Amino acid sequence: MFAVHLMAFYFSKLKEDQIKKVDRFLYHMRLSDDTLLDIMRRFRAEMEKGLAKDTNPTAAVKMLPTFVRAIPDGSENGEFLSLDLGGSKFRVLKVQVAEEGKRHVQMESQFYPTPNEIIRGNGTEVPGSCLNTVADCLADFMKTKDLKHKKLPLGLTFSFPCRQTKLEEGVLLSWTKKFKARGVQDTDVVSRLTKAMRRHKDMDVDILALVNDTVGTMMTCAYDDPYCEVGVIIGTGTNACYMEDMSNIDLVEGDEGRMCINTEWGAFGDDGALEDIRTEFDRELDLGSLNPGKQMFEKMISGLYLGELVRLILLKMAKAGLLFGGEKSSALHTKGKIETWHVAAMEKYKEGLANTREILVDLGLEPSEADCIAVQHVCTIVSFRSANLCAAALAAILTRLRENKKVERLRTTVGVDGTLYKIHPQYPKRLHKVVRKLVPSCDVRFLLSESGSTKGAAMVTAVASRVKAQRKQIDKVLALFRLTQEQLVDVQAKMRAELEYGLKKKSHGLATVRMLPTYVCGLPDGTEKGKFLALDLGGTNFRVLLVKIRSGRRSVRMYNKIFAIPLEIMQGTGEELFDHIVQCIADFLDYMGLKGVSLPLGFTFSFPCRQTSIDKGTLIGWTKGFKATDCEGEDVVDMLREAIKRRNEFDLDIVAVVNDTVGTMMTCGYEDPNCEIGLIAGTGSNMCYMEDMRNIEMVEGDEGKMCINTEWGGFGDNGCIDDIRTRYDTEVDEGSLNPGKQRYEKMTSGMYLGEIVRQILIDLTKQGLLFRGQISERLRTRGIFETKFLSQIESDRLALLQVRTILQQLGLDSTCEDSIVVKEVCGAVSRRAAQLCGAGLAAIVEKRREDQGLEHLRITVGVDGTLYKLHPHFSRILQETVKELAPRCDVTFMLSEDGSGKGAALITAVAKRLQQAQKEN
Ligand code: BG6
Ligand code: BG6
Ligand code: GLC
Ligand code: GLC
User: Fold this and answer.
1) Per-residue pLDDT averaged across 108-112, rounded?
2) 3-state secondary structure string across 778-810
């Protein structure tokens, strides 16, 4: 009995001594609570540094956005392939997510050895060929599982730091752990692997997601526990990911919701931030590693290094005569001879000491009882430090999560995986305890990931696959707006045919492109002079102008005032409309102090009018937003005169009625005599040009030229371009004031583009592809997308966030993804508009070139209109299209700065001069 007591006393004394000895020797490895709190603070600062745009480039902890935006919600389903590369084992899997509406995951997997060509690459091989080996394993797996005939999406778990700009991409920043294959770093692993897979002709696999193992782990655990928002790996390497608020992630646009950040905390300390706690053993281990100077934190923590640290310590202690009586074995001198599982075995609660003896003997040593106790304690200190460090960094993440959520207490779950955590007997308990001590304000649950990262990766892939399918649907809609070169050539040819048809006497009255003679027969010659009034009705603004033209110097002074025309007047009675116009004239004359003065007036009236002289114009039909009654079939000049008479306040001499295209051509023609075309791309779309009299069959005379107002907006009203019209165009047409009319205009002008966009958005929303499938009242409202909004949305300088703000102003509550789609829709619609307009213009310039028998035509087009002027891309695409379709015409585009009013005044001046001359004769 006494002997037993003595033995026990002896043993505990021995133990105490040994422990003291080791504690003294490894004093530097023991971290106090204060130090841990300090490390926690430092890691918090590192996280912030990595997240901010300006500090990220120099940050050691990279905080990589993963493009995983949500934890699984149970709606994931499908069959997927999965590769799991980078941990201690390389696996290929088939994962079946959710069957028959059940939340259930089934996996079939096969481990493959990771031969040297995967890990290190082989000097004689092609760079990057390690991915060929990976692809070969996948091919083998598919063959054995009889999957080769299937097209399956693949999720790749790749446990290395990768820079991602989307889910299906990952540029390897650097190899870590024991990998160092040549030619892969700085390249996109997904495209490299895709290329490698193409070598297998019978394999059709689509990599939809690249996922870090931490992310996979978090997702695996989140499938079972929705509170899981952190993933930690304590295995061969160590790392963590967590869900960060988008508003804190500078590197990714948008601020809505959250995104998973792969911290790559293994690199903490790579900038020297942990020098004060690193020991001589850490330094020695680092020097002997594959990546010296890198992954400082990881090298103090993870399984790949823990055994080696123990070995270096034992060697040093032996050398100092503190162990094994100063004896060292050659195994103890050999790198890698002590591994994590040794450490774990030595720390086992009961068998630990016996295991230690056995392991030491295997290393060729002859340990005493005291040695065994000391060695066991070395292991404890090393693994305890590992758990402590891990806990400090994890505590920093948890604190950040709590602060992001602005809550007093955080309830959360941490998903964990990795061999060290799994096989070490005390590691989990230590880690949990320290974390709880460091962040008492968090109720943390630790959840071991039972099925590895791939289950989670499959969740991510499932979501990606759904997104991809949705993308396909969106592309299908947008494709309707993409015109091929042949289609454009066809439009050009048809427009040409319609132009010719409208000029022929026998078909003139039937033509949809009306080709209206304007009785404007020449450009101003610079001798015009005088004071004129002008009205400008039919565009965005109604204006009254006073234009003073001075002869000889080609100088014009203008004064104008914009008046509103309320909707009820635009669509009221003709009398009301013209009374309102005269009211505005009266106000203007008053404003200019011109009351009682009778001035000649030019009337820009931007609607189709049949003219028999320059001062007569019978309205054929309203277009755009006008629909006043009792005007169609009436002479608008008469209507204006009558309204002036009704008011009985002043008299005006109405000399000319002019279309806005003609006014624009004249305005530009005053400066450039080569300007023989006028183009409007504004609320409406139209074009006029100078035609040889001999070609205008319905007007007497063959001499000289006359301006023809084509009214090309009506192109297609006979169905000739129905092949390129979409269901959205039909919808817009049917909801318009003039169904069936102005079909070309409705595909090309500002008043309708926004409506087309709105129709597409409604359809995409109905298909569940936008706005969470909810069609808001706003979206149902006609006319919400004015040209100016389209122009803003498509501006290149605009960040997505601003697009969202614009949509919000429009009352559309969109996510960032929604904004991207809306912008694309706008782009597709406006691009088609510009191309169609270009095809029309190409038709006319080619016609003019051929008519004049010229090899090359140089011509200027005077242009006006809000679409042309405000839209960031319309004018460029229009011009490019003309160049492509009419390569033998050298077309100069001249923007009309002063609007059509000036042109109308010039026409009035010419007409007045001719009138005068006639009178004198
Ligand atoms: C596994 C994952 O479960 O955990 C691996 O599927 C991952 O991809 C691993 O790398 C981490 O553990 P270890 O110990 O194998 O590196
Ligand atoms: C202006 C003209 O400059 O351009 C208007 O003066 C014309 O009369 C207009 O209708 C076309 O542009 P929008 O975009 O206002 O229809
Ligand atoms: C290394 C890798 C990291 C990975 C970790 C755990 O630190 O760089 O991406 O998550 O190991 O496997
Ligand atoms: C409409 C009108 C036309 C006008 C064009 C541009 O197409 O019918 O006359 O030129 O809009 O404003």
Assistant:
1) 91
2) CCCCCCCCCHHHHHHHCCCCCCHHHHHHHHHHC
- Residue type for 257, please? G
Taking only the tens place, the pLDDT of each residue in 651-680 is 999 999 999 999 999 999 998 999 999 999
Ligand closest to the CA atom of residue 215: 3
Report in angstroms the alpha-carbon separations of 582 from 183, 643, 803: 78, 7, 42
Length reported for the chain: 921
Q: Answer yes or no: are the C-beta atoms of 394 and 240 closer than 8 Å.
A: yes
For residue 546, list its beta bridge partners: 533, 559
Question: pLDDT for 838-874, tens place per residue?
Answer: 999 999 999 999 999 999 999 999 999 999 999 999 9
- CA count, 13 A, side-chain hemisphere, 708: 27
Which protein residues touch ligand 3 with a CB less than 6 Å away?
86-87, 159-161, 176-177, 212-214, 233, 235-239, 264, 266, 298
Distance 850 CA to ligand 2 centre (A): 30
CA angle, 839 then 843 then 849, to 5°: 140
Q: What is the DSSP string of 370-406?
A: HHHHHHHHHHHHHHHHHHHHHHHHHHHHHHHHHHHHT
Helices and strands: H and E segment counts in the chain: 29, 26
Confidence of residue 123 (pLDDT cuts 50, 70, 90): very low
Q: Whose CA is nearest to atom 6 of ligand 4?
A: 684
- State how far the Cα of 399 lies from the Cα of 389, in Å rounded to an integer: 15
| Alpha helix segments (H runs only) across 693-780 | 727-734, 743-748, 750-766
**Cα-based distances in Å from 102 to 71, 93, 97, 715:** 17, 20, 9, 56
Mean pLDDT of the chain: 92
Q: Which of 465-469, 566-570, 645-649, 678-682 has the highest mean pLDDT?
A: 678-682
For the CA atoms of 832, 833, 835, 839, the dihedral, rounded to the nearest 10 degrees, stands at: 130
Grouping H, G, I as helix, E, B as strand and the rest as coil, residue 208 is: strand
Nearest CA to ligand 3 atom 3: 160
Distance 337 CA to ligand 1 centre (A): 22
3-state secondary structure of 130: helix
Please check whether residue 516 is in contact with residue 608, taking contact to mean a CB–CB distance below 8 angstroms: yes
How far is residue 127's CA from residue 125's CA, in Å, rounded to a whole number? 6
Residue-wise pLDDT tens digits, 439-475: 999 999 999 998 888 888 988 888 888 888 888 999 9
The two most distant CA atoms of the chain are separated, in Å, by 150
606 is catalytic: yes
Query: Given strand 64-65, what is the order of strands in its sheet?
Result: 64-65, 258-262, 238-245, 228-234, 410-417, 442-448
CA distances from 384 to 22, 49, 141, 427, 742 (A): 14, 28, 40, 7, 80
Encode pLDDT of 51-103 as tens digits: 999 999 999 999 999 999 888 777 778 889 999 998 888 999 999 888 666 77
pLDDT in tens, 292-315: 999 999 999 999 999 999 999 999
- Say how far apart CA 440 and CA 425 lie, in whole Å: 24
Helix, coil or strand: residue 814 = coil
* Neighbour tally for 783: CB within 10 Å: 12
Whether 740 has a pLDDT exceeding 70, the answer reads: yes
How many CA atoms lie less than 13 Å away from 729 in the CB half-sphere?
24
For atom 9 of ligand 3, the residue with the nearest CA is 160
Query: CA–CA separation, 452 vs 235, rounded Å?
Result: 12
To 10 degrees, the CA torsion angle through 196, 199, 202, 206? Answer: 30
Q: Which residue has the tokens 């990931």?
A: 449
381-404 residue pLDDT tens: 999 999 999 999 999 999 999 999
User: What number does the ligand 2 atom closest to the CA of 864 have?
Assistant: 4
Contact 370/321 with Cβ under 8 angstroms?
no
What are the φ and ψ backbone dihedral angles of 847, each rounded to 5 degrees? Answer: -60, -45
